[in-house]
Amino acid sequence: PACTRDQLTAALRGLEDRGYLTFRPADRTGGVELLRPHEALVLDEAGMKARRGREYAKLDRMVAYASASCRRRYIVEYFGEVAPFERCGTCDACRAGVDTVLAPRALTPDEVEVVRKLLACLARMERHTSQVGWSTDLLVKTALGSQEAKVVQLGFVGLSTHGILGTEAKRPWTARELTDLVRALVDAGCLDETYATRRISGKDRTYRQLGVSARGWEVLRGGGEELILAFPHAHKLVARRPTASAGPEVPSELLALLREVRAQLCREADVPAYVVASNRTLEDMARLRPLTRKAMLGVHGMGEVRCSRYGSPFLDAIRSWAQGA
Ligand SMILES: [Zn+2]
Asked: Quick one: which of 167, 165, 170 has its CA closest to 182?
């Protein structure tokens, strides 16, 4: 049959809700009566497609719940709140010691460069084919410089970004690592993920497909400094990342200025220094130099609460320093 009994019942219920017919299930007297037989049926296909996408996204979040590092935190964040803890310590995942998920943060210039390379690779694939909506698998293979038949057939081997993170890179990424990065970019809104359904040998198959989002284009055009994301496998870039004690990366005048701001805030609120910001927080702030509240949230130790309470004076100080520097 073209559809199951449940699907047919659901469709009839839908038409009933919209006032096209009345319907009683067959297990009683049963029957369908058309209420507006002369009116054309209006179907909102775009709406149905959007709804299908939302249902799949919900399914994905359910799958993510199964592998969450703390189930309670996952639920709290699902409902749009900020958990005051990283681990609740009492859920089954916490007790089993599941690895903690990476927290979103501001990126180093090297990390921004990797993000731009991956986004540029997808953008070139889109431009080359005049088609939006490629799978993670194909994007990763192209970025790694794969010579697989499909990559060759689509002409992706000729792109300047072919192999940009694999054969062409100093420290090649693996397919699994890049797949994690794609995931993080979807979560950060740099990539749009949609669902496409195709009929293959008589069966409907639904696939995830990627496109460079408006935010992704901003990053490609140089807006990456404001990017907040949970960058996976950062250790790959560690050798080229500035160390915590590196002199030039933490401008001493800025650090001194931030210490003054902290002292002022301590006096005003009559609290000890560590309540406002730890030394490590100030150093991280001086290194990352956030200019917006969102970027400030990427600084070590600057959560929502601390940011609302003490964020603005620090932001003002960094802005005035940046203008003078
Ligand atoms: Zn937990």
From this structure: 165
- Gap from CA of 87 to ligand 1 centroid (Å): 5
Cα 67 to Cα 61: distance, rounded to the nearest angstrom: 10
**How far, in Å, is the centroid of ligand 1 from the Cα of 76?**
11
User: Domain of 21?
Assistant: 5-34
Three-state secondary structure call for residue 247: coil
Residue 93 CA to ligand 1 centre (angstroms) = 6
Tens digit of pLDDT for each residue in 85-135? 777 888 888 887 766 656 778 888 888 999 999 999 999 999 999 999 999
Tell how far the Cα of 59 is from the centroid of ligand 1, in angstroms.
Answer: 21
294 CA to middle of ligand 1, Å?
26
Domain-embedded: residue 126: yes
In a domain, 175, yes or no: yes
ipTM of the shown complex: 0.98
- Distance between Cα 315 and ligand 1 center (Å): 33
Which of 52, 47, 94 lies closest to 72, judged by CA?
A: 94
Q: How far is the CA of 313 from the centre of ligand 1 (A)?
A: 34
Residue 127, domain member (yes or no): yes
- Quick one: 302 and 260 in the same domain? yes
| In a shared domain, residues 26 and 85 | no
Q: Are residues 90 and 130 in the same domain?
A: no
Ligand 1 centroid to residue 69 C-alpha, Å = 7
Ligand 1 centroid to 98 CA: how many Å?
9
Residues 153 and 228 in one domain: yes
How confident is the model over 12-60, as pLDDT tens digits? 888 888 888 887 776 666 677 888 888 888 888 888 888 887 888 788 7
Distances 44 to 23, 50, 57, 321 between C-alpha atoms, Å: 21, 10, 20, 54
**Total count of domains within the chain:** 4
